Amino acid sequence: MIEKIINISKEAGEIIRDGFGKHKSVEFKTNSSNLVTEIDKESEKLIINFIEKEFPAHTIIAEETGHLEKNSEYTWIIDPLDGTTNFAHGLPIFSVSIGLLKKNEVVCGVVYDVMNDIVYSSEKGGGSFKNALKISVSTNSNLEESLLVTGFPYDIKNNPHKAIEKFAGFLKAARAIRRLGSAALDMCYVASGIFDGFWEVQINPWDIAAGKLIVEEAGGLVTDFNGKPMDVFSPQMLASNGYIHNSMLQILKLYE
Ligand code: IPD
Ligand code: CA
Ligand code: CA
Questions:
Q1: Could you tell me how far CA 67 lies from the centroid of its own chain?
Q2: Is residue 24 scored above 80 in pLDDT?
Q3: Domain chopping of the chain, boundaries
Q4: Nearest ligand (C-alpha, residue 185)
């Protein structure tokens, strides 16, 4: 299964690489910060066609197409191009993210780092990999020495869930914060030990379905902002190496 998912992620990545710098249309979704290009749609079409051919009985949730319900215990969750803003502006940081759920649990996850041709993958119980290399989270337990990452929802101008205060709180508490623009890659960088933690106040299932498993199988922790277990449909997400999780939860609590 994982090999098939890796192959289709790479094929979708090829569409994106070929289209980088050449896309023709940029449409606005909810507002002028929330973009979609024809390349997002082409990538998604390829992945959906693959699933419909190989696993016609499975449910699909795809960012641009929506919910294709089949009443199956298996659900595919697809972000055909995570990092569309970067893509549309020519910044080479974006990915393809595919997660497979059995009931509500992610059992396979693949994130393809398109421009670096790197596959992050994980199967439940089998560890996480960067290409063939097993990866694990960092061992840093001090928030003051942590490199964190975050992202903002497209309605950040309304400051939902005090996102701006939370961001300011972490700026003061951690060593530094990054905002790369591809949540799926952010998760893989937590899993690889580059980032010690990652939070977002309003995330979508397709941003984190694959990444959640990849972080957990690399030894990390993924919870909601109360430290409770979360599934990929929970909007508030904290992912970390586990060691700084409580310190991060304390900052999130300050700005509820
Ligand atoms: C977005 C990116 C971004 C995150 C947003 C996502 P998109 O996904 O992952 O890093 O901060 O919450 O919506 O729209 O580029 O697929
Ligand atoms: Ca996304
Ligand atoms: Ca997307």
A1: 18
A2: no
A3: 2-135, 143-254
A4: 1
